[in-house]
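Hi both,

Apologies for the delay on this - the queue was longer than expected. I finally got the NAP-bound model through. Below you'll find the protein sequence and the ligand SMILES exactly as submitted, and right after that the structure tokens for the full complex including the ligand.
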Amino acid sequence: MDLALITGASSGIGFQLARQLGERGYDIVGVGASARINDLGDHISGVEVVPVQADLATAEGIEQLWAVIERLERPLDVACLNAGRSLGGAFLDTDLDEELQMLALNVTGQVRLAKHVVRHMADRQAGRILITTSCSALTPTPYESIYGPTRSFMLSFAEGLREEMKEYGVGVTALLPGATATDFHQTAGMGNTKFGSNDWKNDPALVAEQGLDALFAGEDHVIGGDQATRDDAALNRTLSDPVKATKFAQASRPTT
Ligand SMILES: NC(=O)c1ccc[n+]([C@@H]2O[C@H](COP(=O)([O-])OP(=O)(O)OC[C@H]3O[C@@H](n4cnc5c(N)ncnc54)[C@H](OP(=O)(O)O)[C@@H]3O)[C@@H](O)[C@H]2O)c1
């Protein structure tokens, strides 16, 4: 059996990545912040599931996770660096400590974990890394003004790392979901925005499937979502930043 690591596996896109990698025959190391990660094995059958509860916004949490991987004494074939969060609201009002926590999870923690994963896979000259970023990487993100840049960082990181890892036989793919029906926007305190309703958003199972298909096809990136999402991403590559910022604010600006 091959082994796959998925961060943010207790919910949403990460949960679907874990479930679908299990269906593809991978043993799973699934990571989440809260105790609900311990239920992951109830949803995946026929493979080994190792749940890890760790705070990936901290160096200690990353080292705790990596110690689990090392104790398994098995090669890691797939790593999905997926855990992330947002914080909605006007930058004037949002809490700085919460923003710094988000940067610690979405950027610093990802880089810390990637360092371990990349060295491990380069030693073996094999492996595949899927980095979940966002269509928000393609636009300014008013009312999520720190979140969007964290996704741009991860997209640029993924594309650069991909080039470096080619000579080691390690693949790197970026998954850019459009708005997806998960806990994400509620957790970000965005219930009072258009993004706050899950009614119109993409199915996380579809987004995960597209990510995994692109990963195994060796693509550099993939937009996650339906045709409208892919059309919107293509449009965003042509519009000016001020126009995109106004368009994004229509969905992210609090209505109350
Ligand atoms: N949903 C969207 O519209 C959307 C669009 C574009 C990109 N994305 C990206 O997709 C990724 C997954 O988001 P999602 O929509 O699936 O969100 P979600 O349903 O809220 O799931 C977030 C996952 O991350 C885990 N997590 C949160 N903070 C953590 C921490 N400090 N340490 C370890 N794990 C932590 C959560 O664990 P607990 O459940 O235990 O808290 C959960 O498993 C994110 O990187 C996000 O930027 C989402």
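Main takeaway for now: Residues 96-124 form the longest helix (29 residues).

I'll put the files on the shared drive as well.

H.
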